[in-house]
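Example (one chain per record):
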Amino acid sequence: MHARTVTNPALDSKAATLDEAMALEAAGRWEDARKLYEHCHEADPFTRDLNAVMQELRCSINLCYWHRYEHLQRILMHAVDNGGYVLGETSVASPVLSGSRLRQCAQRAAVAHTRAARTAVPAFESVGQFESNRTAGRLKVGFLGCDFANQATSYLMVGLIEEHDREAFEYIAFDFGHASEGDSLRQRIKVAFDRFHHVAELDNGELAAYIARQNIDVLLFLKGPTDARCGVLARRPAPVQFAYLYYPATFGGSLVDGIIADDIVVPKELESNYSEAVVRLPRCYQPNDARRPLPVRVSREEVGLPSDAFVLANFGQAWKITPGMFDLWCALLRRYPTCVLWLLDFCESTVCNLRNEAAIRGVKPERLIFGPFENSQRHLSRLTCADLMLDTSPYGGHTGTSDALWAGVPVVTLSAETFASRVAASLLHAVGLDQLVASSAEEYVRIVSGLLEQPERVNVLKAHLNKGRTEFQLFDSRGYARDFEAMLRTVVTVPAHSTSLSAGV
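Predicted structure:
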């Protein structure tokens, strides 16, 4: 006799719709996916699936479709305050999730992640060593990631890897990605490492054992807490494990012992928002490549800009633009009619939505100008056509801000309490432009307005950036490497779970 499976047609239908929406999203059909997610919620408003809410929110912010923005954010905040959790860029970009709420989310996710790892591996135990004491010889530093190619992480980090002290340190890459070997940046960074291991075919248990056999002293994780390879960290293949460069928030648990920061991105008074130790570098935490090409001036006509306008720009991803930030930008555009706003052309729907939102706010849609994605050299060159970069908050420009500063374009940022909102402030400090950091929306508008009303000051700031490009701490790869090595020496001799550590020079 066979047991009969009882199904719920309504639940089956919803599950099928969500599966279809996720497939559309994966194919880049954001608008079609968003409509399906919204349909699921409207059809069943009292039984909300937080994961589905977050998927709708992710689609919506990529499209700058803000009709349900506040509604979805309220659901998100209510869920977090009642024991739920979300992780990833969508949550870090949320204006309703404070640093303490982000920590709560990360801690809950870490518990679930560890529980899943223990279930998957009944004999779950560390494969690495717990002792901080090490044998003589070079300190072995592992870099675990999948972006060893033409991606922001390697774009920033390649100078550090090239400048490391090969007599005292051995830098070892563990690459679980599938990048093309024809990528020029990939070839450059592969040569810079002392050893480079392709490990994409290993599962998490195999990879953890493989790393442990290399006797790594410090393992740096170059992804975020939502990545499936956190299962490697859960097995503790190294005595000290740190989050580095990729994810600008806390991991929330024992997966990593510390996060690499500086005094600006994580000031002492905000340390309580981080579960791991905060390890501070004496200069900006973000590395930069001193060998990157210099921008080549192009004309505004070449990039579709009016020659006589004051060009305000932001080339961040569309999902970083919140309705609140767009309100500030449109207020500036209304007040100063000679300005245009130059943005990244993410997709046709995003462009249409942003122009509609501008019109709602009393700004002519044609004053928004969109530029396509470009390769790094072309992008750096076109940035010289901008007068002023406007940063987003709470998730600001990171690589994008350092690109603008390298191109000689000043950036105005709004610094809040989260790591993601404070990176541009740290970058500006490292080039001597702290006066461009605002701590409130009113101050942000005031700083930009002052520059618009005295455009000669913008020229002074540009001259400062162009003259000091090779002298600023921000672009000193060799000096950064020495500071980084001092930090590494500290973390192998100090207990990993100390509240905070600093690498002095």
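Caption: The first helix runs from residue 9 to 26.
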